[in-house]
Design a protein that fits this description.
Number of strands: 10
CATH architecture: Roll
CATH class: Alpha Beta
Helix content: 10-25%
CATH superfamily: Hotdog Thioesterase
Radius of gyration: 15 Å
Number of domains: 1
Largest sheet: 7 strands, antiparallel
Oligomer: single chain
CATH topology: Thiol Ester Dehydrase, Chain A
Strand content: 35-45%
Amino acid sequence: MTAPSSGFVFEPSADHPGWSTWNLADPTRFNAQTMGEMLVRIEDHADGSRRVRLRMAPEHRHTNLLDAVHGGVTLALIDIALFAGMRLLLGGDAAGSVTLDLSTQFIGAGRINHPLDAVVEVLRETRRLVFVRGLIEQDDNLVAAFNGTIRKPSSR
């Protein structure tokens, strides 16, 4: 289902049971042009916490000269994951929000032909801000850790 006001296509994935699509309705924008098709799901944990897992499929076009996933692609995945987490865990307006800050620690290199996942959790929500943290995982390897702050849209 495409939510007209959100600009996202979020619906169950026919090819990936248990996952939903997380794509922009306009395929000419950054996410589709740079990142490709993306998948998302909410994960409930035994401790009662909930996290969002956003997945991309790295290809050769996402690599640097070392044949690893380019750091800029990893940062883009993180930025998109901040908003997926806010939208799916809080019902927030991802399309009208902006990233205020993002801190990333690169731990390892991502590889192509293996799903690259951003796993995010919301730490706190205030009237204007959402604080998020997460990890970039690939198979059993950590690629990066991050935290960021999102500013919600202004009331008009």
